[in-house]
Amino acid sequence: MKPSNISIKIYQSFIATLFGVAILVFTSCENDVKEIQLMNSKEELPQMELYDFELFFTEKNLIKYKISAHQALSYEGKENKLLFPKGVQLITYNKMGEIVTESQADSAVYFKNNKLLAYQNVRIIGKNNRELQTNFLTWDEKKKMFHTTDTAYIIRNGKKIQTIGMEAKDDFSTYKLFDITGKIELNENR
To answer: For the chain, where are the E strands, in sequence order?
Structure first.
């Protein structure tokens, strides 16, 4: 039995359609190599990016801390953290709502276990206009303490004291200096 012209045309149409679909499927499934590498990358990516923001930490309806930054990257996983790659400012307040300290740094990482690491041009201004300058500082929110093992400068009453390593209460009311250079007045009225 010889196939009719209609069945040959249907068969040819079916083959042409199948071939067209195959070409479409195989060409549209092409992936960019960079996209595949990014998906397979072990690099940790932020869950959230924030720009030009202020974050307030409160306790019993009172502001304790205010963090301001141009950019923040939020990471969740092994270490929950906020990364501030373009600078950060931290202001602490007392129970009366008055500013206790103002801190700033070129970059910082805040770990959600209440620890902040600040890098480059770290500056803290506290009570009685005492000022701390260093390039690395750790802040332990639970202990309410600042700490550095780096070179630091304490400026008060127009005098600059250099130290390598120091720790201070986070209200900057008291501090302990290690390996000091500069003039220190021993009988200061407080």
So the answer is: 48-59, 62-75, 81-84, 88-93, 99-105, 107-111, 115-125, 131-140, 145-156, 159-169, 175-177, 180-181
Do 75 and 44 touch, CB atoms closer than 8 A? yes
- Pinpoint the alpha helices (H) of the chain: 5-28, 33-40
Residue with tokens 């009172």: 62
Q: For residue range 5-47, what is the model confidence (pLDDT) as tens digits?
A: 555 556 556 565 655 555 555 555 455 555 555 555 566 788 8
Burial 124-138 (b: 16+ CB within 10 A, else e): bbbeeebebbbebbe
pTM: 0.69
* Cβ neighbourhood burial of 115 (10 Å; 0-12, 13-18, 19+): middle
